Description:
By secondary structure, the protein is mainly α. It has helices at 15-36, 54-70, 83-99, 112-119, 137-161, 169-190. The longest helix has 25 residues, at 137-161.
Amino acid sequence: MENKQQQVVDTTMSYLTLRKLLGTLGILLPILLLIFNDFKVQASISHFYYTKSSVVFTSILFAFGLFLFSYRGRLKETELVSDKTLTNIGGLLAILTALIPTAVCQLDNCNFTSFQSKLSTLSIEEGISKLFIHNDKWIGVIHLLCAVGFLTIMGWMSFNRFTKGNTTVNKKIFYRVCAFMVWLPIIGLGV
Length: 191
């Protein structure tokens, strides 16, 4: 009898590949939201939750969250907080950002009463879910805090953690530029 060797197919994906995939999703998120919402801009990226692109918004945030929960990071950690702890917190915040929508009217010129009267004309065919529409200030604050925490951790990982190890100077610069691009909207909130 012939002794057949079984060919083992490697189905694992490296963390580097997952990080690149996640980075690509992060870069594509605003573009995909605009495409799926017929290029209609919203007051903030979180307001896409109330549009046809809400599934894209929540799905990508859940993808971030699930990846971050599975990410172990550097095994020999000399810093106060490990990669695993940071990414677990970031994963939780990403999922909470997706589950807790922002308030519909965060702008001074928004009339929630007028918006409520239009709710009866909205339909599933238009792709807008009426289930979680709210204008509760504190729920909106919780959403904002989760989003800011998530983005802060993602920027920190890019700026501080991805630049360690055998990384080229160009990659270090790229990761740090990405960190500032992630932090820029947070800085804009404070202005």
